[in-house]
Every structure is written in structure tokens, then in C-alpha cells.
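Re: that backbone. C-alpha cells:
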């Protein structure tokens, strides 16, 4: 039986204290009824004896301590899940905002899901093609992986996120879906995502959650969990391969810090709560492949590094939990390279598991290692050239310097609309490697050089 209480004792910003409660549990959902009949939702943050601290999802303005009533619903925040979610746009609380009908729910799921049991995990080992050469060719995304993108303020991570959502697919077929959660974004950004997905037809296979910057902080905390709950349903109930894109995790962490400060918790590094690592891990570790099930969840969290600082708590802790990172470069962006992926510090720790014969192509590993090495050498030679002058470099050194320029111009820079297949990416890599003397291709097998290096270069 649902009880109503008129024992609201105190309201402090988004927090409210209710006395003399019975049987109330942590994370339980509640409804506050105002004297004028308005109803606002809240959730339980803390229970101490017969006193509960709840957090409002909406403004506390107009709540009268004497006349307002609160009732606890006996369950946590839930999401109505169904196949009908595909192609729909929801707000951060899982309510449709695209003008369509309410979802006919196949089930209602608690959004506070559990991290996947390590004993139940299957190893990620299947290639996901994003159509972006710097990811597919050099930092390969594998089905079931968590691969974050580290960006900076003003860099085009929104364009990159939309491009991945449009282009990503699993080779060899299989039901593929995208769950896209935009966290704490502006209205203009939300319109960009919605219109872009509709224009390209990507919305048909996408579940889109939009949380705006002026929405309450507690909704921002719920949004990624809404997205992951939808992804778990599609992946493990419906057998789909789901790509979850979360942007921007920095806005999520800021909301977490705001709530923590309101609760007067002892702050940790840079004011973030001490449990930030645990909180992020409870989200990230919901992705993966599960033994005995066809579906999978692959995750790309996107975050902006404050002041481009990789040691900031958010990218630092994210790096510990996930399997690598794609880093965007401000220098490349200023040079007109898009997407401005900084290849050398970027890393996919599972890339070796998703490439090779039967997955991408037999020459993938060798060309990937050779491109990395040649680009790194070219960058070093360009630095030496700027210090010592061109005359101080050998002819081979000058070739490597030219290679680095061509690599950035042709391989890294492809724009936000070009969708390259893995074969096109690998062939482009061979074209660039043909600039180097054959004797410098020391990381590629002889038979692959014979088979894939353009003929005119071998003859020369």
C-alpha cells in the first residue's frame, strides 16, 4: 500500500527532507503533490532511521512545507522498453519528445542495472567498421569494447559522434542498432543530432536520448543509465549488436559533483566526489559481450578534457576503466584536419583481436604497425627540420617528413561525410607506404608487400 506523508521538514535547493517515513529504500521513486495539484517526481538519496533525504527531478519552487504531500512508489526509476524504441527521440527521463505516441512497453526495467559479471563475459574479438580510417585502420573498434574519445572544448566531437552513429556497422550482417545519449547539450546541438539522423536515415536504427543543459542535474545523472538500459534490452533480449555513444561524460560528472556538493559530502580530487571512479565503472562495465547470447554492447563514451588536461580526474579515471582512448588534437583541428584524431597517443588495447584474415584483411596488422612507425618517424624529422633546417636531413629523412604531411592530409583528414570501407582504408595505407623505399617496409611480411604494394612502385 502506498502511503502519503505530510511531514516535509526542509527544502534546500534540489534536496528535501521528509520525517517519520516507514519502509522507504535507497533510490526509490517518489511523487510530491503540491496544493494546486501539480505533481513533481523525486528519488530517495539517503535514509537515516525514519528520515529520508530525497532529490527533486524538477524545481523546488512552490513547495509548501505544510500543505504539500509526498508518496513513495515502492520502485526505483524505470524505463519502459520495447522494439518500438528504435527510431524514437526521448528526453533524459525516457519520455518521448518527438511528437509520437507513448511506447507500448514490453517491460519496465530498473535503470540502475548491474555491471556485467566478469565470469559471464565473452571476449571481444569481432571488428566494427566505423568508416573512419584513423579508427578502423589504426585503433580498431571491437564488438563489446569500451573505447572513449577524449576531446577538448571547441573541438568537433559532436560531428565525429554523429558520423560514427551514421556509419558504424558489423561486417557480415547481423542486427545492428545505435543508442545515442546526449548529456547536458545545448538546444542547437540537440537539433543538429536530430536533423542529421533524420536526414541520413540513421534515426531508423537509433534510440536517441536528449538531455539539455537547462534540465535538472539529477536528470543528467539518469540519462546515460536510461540509454544503457535500452541497450541491454536490445542486446540481450533481442539479440542485436548495439553501439552506445555517450556525449558528454564531462557534463555527467559535473552534475554528479553538483549533487554531491548539495548533499555536503566530503569532496575528492578537484571537488568531484570520492566515488567518481566507482560511479563511472558502474556505467562503463555494463557494456560487453555475454556468454551464451548473440547480442553485444559496444560503448564509445565521449568527454571533453577541461583545459585539454589528460590528467584531469574524468579522463584519468575513464582511461583506467576502458580499453584505450581516441584523442582529438587541437593542432590538427587548427590545420583544417577533420576529424582531428591524434594518431600517436591514441590507442585501442583490443585492436589486435579484431583484425586479420577472416575479420578485416590479412595485411591489416603489418600495415597498421608500419604506418604508425613511419608517421612517428616523419613527425620527429619535421621537428628536426624546424630546428636544424632541411639541409641537416638525409634524403630518406626528407621522404619520411613528406610522408607525415601526406598521411595527415589524405589518411587522417577525410571530413565528416566520407564513409570509407576497411578495404579502402587499407588500400590508402598502401598508397602512402609506397612513398617510402621498399627496404624501409620492415614491419610487413614479404608476401604482403608482393601482393598489395602498387606494382609501379615495386618495379621502380
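Recovered sequence:
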Amino acid at each position: 500500500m502506498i502511503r502519503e506523508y505530510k511531514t516535509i521538514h526542509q527544502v534546500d535547493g534540489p534536496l528535501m527532507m521528509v520525517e517519520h517515513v516507514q519502509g522507504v529504500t535507497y533510490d526509490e521513486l517518489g511523487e510530491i503533490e503540491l496544493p494546486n495539484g501539480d505533481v513533481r517526481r523525486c528519488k530517495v538519496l539517503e535514509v537515516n532511521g525514519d528520515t529520508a533525504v530525497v532529490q527533486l527531478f524538477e524545481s523546488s519552487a512552490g513547495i509548501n512545507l505544510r500543505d504539500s504531500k509526498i508518496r513513495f512508489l515502492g520502485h526505483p526509476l524505470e524505463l519502459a522498453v520495447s522494439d518500438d524504441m528504435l527510431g524514437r527521440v526521448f528526453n533524459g527521463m525516457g519520455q518521448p519528445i518527438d511528437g509520437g505516441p507513448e511506447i507500448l512497453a514490453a517491460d519496465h526495467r530498473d535503470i540502475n542495472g548491474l555491471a556485467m559479471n566478469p565470469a559471464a563475459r565473452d571476449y571481444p574479438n569481432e571488428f566494427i567498421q566505423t568508416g573512419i580510417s584513423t579508427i578502423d585502420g589504426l585503433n580498431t573498434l571491437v564488438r563489446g569494447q569500451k573505447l572513449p574519445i577524449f576531446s577538448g572544448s571547441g573541438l568537433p566531437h559532436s560531428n565525429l559522434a554523429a558520423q560514427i552513429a551514421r556509419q558504424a556497422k558489423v561486417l557480415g550482417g547481423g542486427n545492428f542498432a545505435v543508442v545515442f545519449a546526449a548529456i547536458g547539450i545545448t538546444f542547437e546541438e540537440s537539433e543538429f543530432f536530430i536533423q542529421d539522423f533524420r536526414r541520413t536515415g540513421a534515426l531508423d536504427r537509433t534510440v536517441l536520448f536528449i538531455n539539455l543543459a537547462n534540465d535538472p542535474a539529477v536528470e543528467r545523472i539518469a540519462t546515460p543509465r536510461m540509454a544503457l538500459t535500452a541497450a541491454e534490452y536490445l542486446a540481450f533480449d533481442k539479440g542485436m549488436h548495439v553501439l552506445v555513444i555517450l556525449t558528454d561524460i564531462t557534463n555527467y560528472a559535473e552534475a554528479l559533483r553538483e549533487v554531491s556538493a548539495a548533499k555536503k559530502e566530503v569532496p575528492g580530487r578537484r571537488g568531484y566526489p570520492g566515488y567518481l571512479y566507482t560511479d563511472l565503472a558502474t556505467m562503463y562495465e555494463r557494456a560487453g559481450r555475454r556468454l551464451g547470447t548473440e547480442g553485444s554492447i559496444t560503448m564509445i563514451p565521449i568527454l571533453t578534457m577541461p583545459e585539454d588536461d589528460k590528467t584531469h580526474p574524468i579522463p584519468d579515471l575513464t582511461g583506467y576503466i576502458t580499453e584505450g582512448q581516441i584523442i582529438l588534437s587541437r593542432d590538427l583541428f587548427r590545420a583544417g584536419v577533420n576529424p582531428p584524431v591524434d594518431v600517436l597517443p591514441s590507442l585501442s588495447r583490443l585492436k589486435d583481436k579484431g583484425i586479420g584474415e577472416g575479420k578485416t584483411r590479412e595485411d591489416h596488422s603489418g600495415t597498421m604497425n608500419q604506418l604508425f612507425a613511419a608517421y612517428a618517424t616523419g613527425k620527429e624529422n619535421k621537428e628536426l627540420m624546424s630546428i636544424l633546417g632541411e639541409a641537416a636531413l638525409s634524403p630518406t629523412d626528407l621522404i619520411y617528413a613528406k610522408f607525415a604531411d601526406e598521411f595527415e592530409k589524405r589518411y587522417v583528414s577525410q571530413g565528416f561525410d566520407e564513409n570509407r570501407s576497411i578495404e579502402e582504408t587499407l588500400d590508402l595505407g598502401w598508397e602512402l607506404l609506397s612513398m617510402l623505399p621498399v627496404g624501409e617496409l620492415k614491419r610487413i611480411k614479404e608476401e604482403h608487400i608482393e601482393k598489395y604494394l602498387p606494382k609501379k612502385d615495386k618495379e621502380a
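The mean pLDDT is 92. The radius of gyration is 25 Å.
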